[in-house]
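Notebook entry, structure prediction.
Reason for the run: the old model in the group folder had no record of what sequence produced it. Starting over properly, with the input documented here first.
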Amino acid sequence: MSPLLARLRAHLARRSPDGAASPSASRDADAPTGRTGAVEAIDVDEFASYHAQAMENYRPLAAPFHLYRQFIHAIEELERVRVLPMHRFVRDRDGSRRTIVFRHDVDADPGMALRCARFLASRGLPGSFYLLHTAQYYGVFRGSTFIRNPALRPLVRALIVCGCEIGLHNDALGAFLFSGVDGPAHVAGEIAWLRSQGAGVRGTVAHNSAPVYRAANSEIFAGRRLWPRDARSADGRALPLEVLDERALGLEYEGTLAIARDPAVPDEARAYCEAGPGGGVRSEAWMRTFLTGNPTCRWDVDMQVWPVGCGRWVVAGRSAAGGIFHWSVELDVVLDALRRLPDGARCMVVIHPEYFMAD
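New structure, fully documented this time:
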């Protein structure tokens, strides 16, 4: 059992969370309220069983952690390359060198995310980590009350100690559709909470893709609607788009780096979103469309690199010779593609820590 999971179990064993709250309330699982209500029924083992199930689900896909270390060491050996955190990557251009950002989308395994952060810190390299507020390692809704996992605070503090960048993995539409809450308000609240813990949140990264909800999570921010339309979920609910102001929230970027196509092709974009997510990141056809032929957006990077499980990688982008797409390749193909990038090129490495496991 991981130290974070052990601490989580200890917290829950000492105090079962209770208390009813107002419709927009959120609190930590170990915060006493002196009141009783529906939240009292939360199962002590609920958070912990999620962790065990998540690890069981991803174990067949996970590569040994030494592959992550090998990749980082190989990046260090590349010439004329610099690695930046996301908040600098989005604005700091350098035509004399290639620039790489390590974006970690922490969907399921915070323990492995922390291991990645500690390894990067040991090498003096920056990494950017985005915590998913709808994942059970982060918290759960009980009605309209949000209960944060008691292991979340020590996780955030441990990441801060590593010196990495911390942001929110924005799943406002998921919170809205599946938990019945004001998803954008929940995002704003969790940004404020992370900052209260000492995390200098400067940006967000949208979770999932537009075909999952028929809109991208990034579209909750003013000016980020991918194309003009009345966006509705599959069951007809109007989606809350362009309701938050990034500047008012103190945010500097949206880290998927998606840019709306100009001109938009509404019929193609709508058909793409309504088709659903298909096979997702483990489907060659889906990833090719998502990364190289996406009708809803283009990407403000020259190349993207994604580990997709079992020690395999996807490389997609553009070059002087045209488009690049390498599916399910080994690390040597990834490194060769990076070496071929011209000076001034920008590469985003998108890492889901659950695709790695202990050696």
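Summary: The two ends are 15 Å apart (CA to CA).
The old model has been moved to the deprecated folder.
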